[in-house]
Each structure stands twice: as C-alpha cells, then as structure tokens.
Amino acid sequence: MSRLRSAARAARLGAERARFAVWAKRLDTALRRAGGRLVLDAPHGAHFYELPSLEIHPYGGEAGTLTLRVGGHVMLGRGLILEVWAGAENTVELGDRATFRAGVRVQMRGGAVRLGADARIRDYSLLEASGGEIVLGDSVQFGAQVCLHATERIALGEHVTVGERTSMFDSDHRHDGSDAPVVDQPVKITPRRDRREHVHRRQLARAARRDRRAQLHVRGREHRARRRLRGRLPVRRDAPAGRASAPAACAGRTRQSIGCMA
Q1: What is the mean pLDDT of residues 220-225?
Q2: Cα separation of 189 and 174, whole Å?
Q3: Secondary structure letter of residue 183 according to DSSP
Q4: What is the Cα Rg of the chain in Å?
Q5: What is the structure's pLDDT at 171?
Q6: pTM of the prediction?
Q7: Are 193 and 155 in contact (CB under 8 A)?
Q8: Phi/psi of residue 137, each to 5°?
Q9: What pLDDT was estimated at residue 245?
Q10: What is the rounded distance in angstroms from the CA atom of residue 58 to the CA atom of residue 40?
C-alpha cells in the first residue's frame, strides 16, 4: 500500500512540474513578444492550486529580463497575478516553502521582489516594485490585504508580522504649490527598513495590557459605587442584627440606582 501511495505521489508531482514548465514557456513567449525574456531557475517547480495569471506589458525600455528563482515546496495560491513590464529588469526570488494565498498580485515595473524561506503572504495582498526592491526575511507573515510599494527599497527582517490592511510606501509626492496634479509632482523617497521581530505580537501584548487596565478601572468604580450604596441604605430597627433593608420610600440617587424594595 505504501509503495502504491509513493508511486501516486510521484506521478502527481511529475504532472505538477510538467504543468509548471508549460506555464514558464508561455510566460517566456509572452515576454519575448513584448520585448523581454525569461531567465528561470526553478529545479523543483512549484506547488499550486492554479497557475498564476499573466499581465505582460511592453513598457520599461528596449529589452528587459525577468529572472524567476523558485525554491523548494513553494506554494502559489488561487488567483495569483503576475504583472510584468517586459522592457525592464525584474527579479522575483521565492525562498523555500514561501507561500502565496489567494488573490495576491505581484507587480514588476523594474526592480526586485525577494521572499525568504517560510515567508507567507495572505489573501489579496499587493507587492509592487516600481524600480525598487522589496526584501522580506525568513518567516515573515503578512495578514490579508497588505500593500507594499517600493520605489527604492522596503526591507523587513526575519519573523516580522504585519497585520491586515497595512500599507507601506518608501515614497510620496511632494506639492510645490503649482496647479500640476499630485501624481505629476516630484517624488520624495525614503527607504524603509524594519529589523524588529514579532512586531504584531508586541502590539497585541500592549493592547492586552490596555484592556486589563480598563477592566480594573471599571471594576474599581463598580466596587466604590456598591460601597456608597451600602452606606446610604438605612437599617430597619426591627430587623435582626447585621441585616439591612431599604424602606418603601426611596429617595434621590439611591432610588435611581437600586429602585424601591418593599
């Protein structure tokens, strides 16, 4: 039985590699039609639910190159889109066990996107290299809908975690007071680099401490309010010792807080 399973797994992996090779040839053909070419280094192929969609544009220069390096056991999610300016120099490097979830878009407009081993990019994220470089260290984790736009360089160190719907830019358009549209204004570039580990974990810890302080504050106020109410309740003269009760007629703040008790 184990031999049968091993044979079936080998056949499945062989078919997967063959499909990836056909997709790579189609990518190279599309690049050459637009003035570029593909340099492929993927001895293990890749795992995938479906192969990436291609958007190839004849922009960026006279002749460009897309260098695609794929490590072992890389996972390509559903709906992955690879957009390339064929006339520019582009590099995509995926380390061992790097993972793209569903709906991720990789835009290569000249530059590089480098993912370390065990990096994980979750659903509907965007990695855009517009002449710059995006470098993600080993075990970097992205939540859903994270956007990175690199004009020069954005680098995250090992084990950095980025929460959902986060955007990172290394550039911004200045405004010189003219009537020119914002997108035509000069660009200010500030490369970003973050070597901190477990960023998201620290943020969660700080949020938990704030919630704990808020809970203690509320409990303290409730305790003080109960003590004040106990002090205002009159004691019935005919009640046994140690037993307190409220009269039928309650007044003021005590009435609003606890109501009337017969």
Answers
A1: 69
A2: 10
A3: G
A4: 31
A5: 80
A6: 0.70
A7: yes
A8: -75, 180
A9: 45
A10: 20
